[in-house]
Amino acid sequence: QSVLSQPPSVSGAPGQRVSISCTGSSSNIGAGYGVFWFQQLPGTAPKLLIYGDNNRPSGVPDRFSASKSGSSASLAITGLQPEDEADYYCQSYDTSLRGSAIFGGGTKLTVL
Amino acid sequence: EVQLVQSGAELKKPGESLKISCQGSGYNFKTYWVAWVRQMPGKGLEWMGLIYPADSDTRYSPSFQGQVTFSADMSITTAYLQWDSLKASDTGMYYCARRASVHDPFDYWGQGTLVTVSS
Fold first, then answer.
1. Which residues of chain B are within 8 Å of residue A38 when distances are taken between CB atoms?
2. Architecture of the A9-97+105-111 domain
3. Domains by residue range for chain B, with CATH
4. Mind listing the pLDDT tens digit for each residue in B37-56?
5. How far is A15 from chain B (nearest CA, A)?
6. How many Cβ contacts (< 8 angstroms) between chains A and B?
C-alpha cells in the first residue's frame, strides 16, 4: 500500500486526453512538498517527466502537464500517442517518514 | 553528457553478500546525492535512501534501514549498494539516480541492476 495513491490503470485512444491522479495527505503533498512525475517505458529505467509541480525537463513534449491542489496532484497527457504507453509514477516527500521520498503505486497507461 | 552506469546483473544464493555499483560521469559527482530505488518484479518503485558522496552522509528509508548499506568512492565517482546476507525477497531491479539537493528531482537515472536471489 503506497503512501501516494494512483489508479492502477488508465486508457485512451490516440489523440485523446487522459489524466492520472495522485492522492496524498497532509504529511506529504498537503504539506507543500513538490510533486514529480516519472515515465517508465517497458523494460527501461524511469525518466523524469515533470518537476517542481509543472516544469518539464528539456525534451519532454508540452503534451505532458501537471497540476496540484491541496493534498492531490494530477498528470495530464493530451494528444495521446502510441509511444506514451508506459507506467507513470508520482513522487513526493513525507514528513512522517523523516522526509523520505515516497512514490505512488504507479499507473499503467494503455493506448487503445 | 550526464550518465549513471550501473554494474551488471547478479545471480546469488540466499545468505551471500553482494555489492553493486553506480558510476557517475559528466557532472560534479561529489555535489549530487545518489539515491537507490528498488523495483520488485512486476511492482512499483520503492525509495531505499541516498548518500551524499562529498561527506558520505547517508539517509535510509525506514523500510530499508539496517537491511542495506550505501557507500561511495569519490576517486572513481562511484556509489555502492551492499547487502551482507541476501534473502530471496531481495530479488528485484535496483536503480540509482542523482539529486542536486533536498527535495530536488531525481533527474538522471542509471539503467538498473537486476539482482536475483535463488537457491
1. 45, 106
2. Sandwich (2.60)
3. 3-7+15-108 (2.60.40.10)
4. 999 999 999 999 999 999 99
5. 27
6. 64
